[in-house]
Amino acid sequence: MITITTSKNKKVYFASDQHLGAPTNEASFPREKKFVAWLDDIKKDAEAIFLLGDLFDFWFEYKTVVPKGFVRTLGKLAEIKDAGIPIYFFVGNHDLWMHDYFEKELNIPVFHNPQVFTINNKILLIGHGDGLGPEDKGYKRMKKVFTFPLFKWMFRWLHPDLGVRLGQYMSVKNKLISGEEDAKYLGDENEWLVQYCKRKLSQAHYDYFVFGHRHLPLKIELQENSTYINLGDWIQYFTYGELNGSEFLLKEFKP
Q1: Is residue 3 part of a domain?
Q2: pLDDT tens digit string along 145-161?
Q3: In the structure, what pLDDT confidence band is assigned to residue 58 with cuts at 50, 70 and 90?
Q4: CA distance linking residue 158 with residue 224, whole number of Å
Q5: Number of domains comprising the chain
């Protein structure tokens, strides 16, 4: 378990689901500039930054090649990390093929499963949110296929120009592969991440559950002193989380 205690006037920030590159690099460029502007804005008082997956709409790491683009985002993350601000990255369903590029090039740890953090004596369970809970069954099946070592080995033998183009096409066009859900609030009883959180609460206490994936900014009280947060996205809502002391706020970035 990683423990973080914020210094005076410092905050911890959370963001998810930027989907840079969707539907094309050119179309997502204004969104990337807005996200970079947010990073530039928060670096002045950030104790730590959590990125909860789907930063890219498609990402695959060959041994010596990564997808072209996103220079402003990667450069800003490198600048922030080099300034001594910790950044934690959680793999989403669109960048599930991330390996060690962030760790080697940016010194940013990468997590493939939800992790428990203690921040200012609050216990947080943090992750992207894909494949959790009782539903998302179609995506769970596809994830097993796409994370199977033989499949990844076969895909790696495709020329990067072909492999990346194919991956981008599947990511944008095929909802089954992408695991995307319609961004509609289903009600607490039908929100499968809410059900997942309630099941986890039966095993241990968490002050906050923080996830992405649903593309909806949500803040739902599960029980006294336990809250489920969904961070929304950077396609429609441009929302992010801010842990200020012990209070978790959902905010919209308006540069």
Answers
A1: no
A2: 666 676 666 667 677 66
A3: confident
A4: 52
A5: 1
